[in-house]
Amino acid sequence: MTEHEQMQEQIRAGLLEGLIQTVIQVFETMAWSRITYQGEQPRKHFVLASQTCGLIGIRGARDGLVGVALDRHLGLEIVSRITGLPVPNIELEDLADGIAELANMICGGMKAKAGIHGLDLTPPLAVIGQDATVHWKTAHPVRELTFMLDRDIIRVLVSI
Description:
With 160 residues, this protein is α+β, with helices and mostly antiparallel strands. The protein has one domain (3-159): CheC-like (Chemotaxis protein chec), CATH 3.40.1550. The chain has helices spanning 3-31, 72-83, 92-114; strands spanning 35-43, 46-49, 52-60, 64-70, 119-121, 125-128, 133-136, 142-149, 152-159. A hairpin with a 3-residue loop joins strand 3 and strand 4 (64-70). Helix 2 (72-83) crosses helix 3 (92-114). It is globular.
């Protein structure tokens, strides 16, 4: 492995560890509930298929994409806690803004915890819908990180 490849692997490992720590921290803060990391699995493709997804691109010392996917009922509950709005009062725009902000908090925390300079995050993107599927073509390996929040599954796909 070349020196450049070693440095890239260190960046990737630091970002993954920072991502896991931050997902736990953000959801425990927002959901006021214990969240557990269940593990990761390699995926052939970066495909998010859920009712609410937040995406952030990474550029600079390492390029990639991070996506957070959760079912609509959990997305509504988390956005309710972020905004202070009761779930029945959350409009589609509120849900999209909240999910985008959730992705932003997670990726910002990942970047800070990894302590890697020279990384820029794109503005967050929210995808909301019954049959929404996000497919991103990438040359980087894709990992699906799974977390459990009570009985709900939170999936985080990362390609860095």
